[in-house]
């Protein structure tokens, strides 16, 4: 059961189809060859919409390294894309996000500690979808592709949110 | 002095030029003939980026009225556009936002009570700029126009934020 019920959303099994999984995988296969660029555009969009989100990344504060060259920001962007892809495959296979418990607890604790809000997760979703829209050939982009990525992302975030609590309580 | 210093931003006089004021006024004069549509698109963009922002509007929760027909949402959108225009004129004339004290205290208290966050103000700014971008003829839109609206909005929001405290403390 994908019952991320603590915040009242995403209860029950998700119906994620093979076609939806295919849309996510197909587009990621195209984007991943250009992943550095894609990751950079993802964060540029996040910071365009919500400049204050920079404050969430302590390593950006006193850094002279340009955004597109920051290895930690690049790694974060890749995690978002790759984990969303994996979430799509898991949802199709099992109806739920099956990120390892340790990983999920770590992600939950980190996002809690940094004070990541619902609005931040939403802005990141918007940035993710905008980045994909302009990262794949125009003929490939479709509302169905947008929804497939959006659903996989929502389930991944719901799983992370459920683990958002102080690390001391783990 | 436009010293909205409590949160460390926008200290000192703003240098807002006649040209910047002109860019704001000129574009608003075009958009205002279609203000219902403009206001609708502004909120659609806010809710696209941050769906949870709907929760900030108690009158949307149990309403069957479609968004584009909701008179209170329309009024809110118009306030944002008109007050940003007025802020542009005030900044050019006096170097600061001179919204009446009573209005500012009321706006501060309301936004405080609703729990409007920095991220929400940022999403609204992004939505405002996107709405203007697609609300004026493509040949009129420019980085300078974007900056003029953005600066006027930032100063208006800084003035509101300075008054964000519980109404009981007024």
From TrEMBL, chains A, B:
Keywords: Cytoplasm, Heme, Iron, Metal-binding, Nucleus, Oxidoreductase. InterPro entries: Globin, Globin-like_sf, Globin/Proto, Leghaemoglobin-like, Leghaemoglobin_Fe_BS. The keyword Metal-binding applies. One of its GO terms (molecular function) is metal ion binding. The keyword DNA damage does not apply. Its cofactor is heme b. Residues 15-165 form the Globin domain. Its main location: cytoplasm. It comes from the Eukaryota. CDD domains: class1_nsHb-like. It is found in: Cytoplasm; Nucleus. GO terms for cellular component: cytoplasm; nucleus. It catalyses: Fe(III)-heme b-[protein] + nitric oxide + H2O = Fe(II)-heme b-[protein] + nitrite + 2 H(+). Homodimer. Belongs to the plant globin family. This is Globin domain-containing protein. It comes from Oryza brachyantha (malo sina). The gene is LOC102716104.
């Amino acid at each position: 059961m994908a019952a991320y019920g603590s915040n009242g959303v995403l209860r029950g099994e998700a119906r994620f189809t093979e076609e939806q999984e295919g849309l996510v995988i197909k587009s990621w296969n195209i984007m991943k060859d250009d992943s550095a660029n894609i990751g950079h555009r993802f964060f540029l969009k996040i910071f365009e919409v919500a400049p204050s989100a920079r404050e969430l990344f302590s390593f950006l504060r006193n850094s002279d390294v340009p955004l597109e060259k920051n290895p930690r920001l690049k790694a974060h962007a890749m995690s978002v894309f790759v984990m969303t892809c994996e979430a799509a495959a898991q949802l199709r296979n099992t109806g739920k996000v099956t990120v390892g418990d340790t990983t999920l607890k770590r992600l939950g604790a980190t996002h809690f500690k940094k004070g990541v809000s619902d609005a931040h997760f939403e802005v990141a979703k918007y940035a993710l979808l905008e980045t994909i829209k302009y990262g794949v050939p125009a003929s490939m982009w479709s509302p169905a592709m947008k929804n497939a990525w959006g659903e996989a992302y929502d389930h991944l975030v719901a799983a992370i949110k459920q683990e958002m609590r102080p690390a001391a309580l783990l």
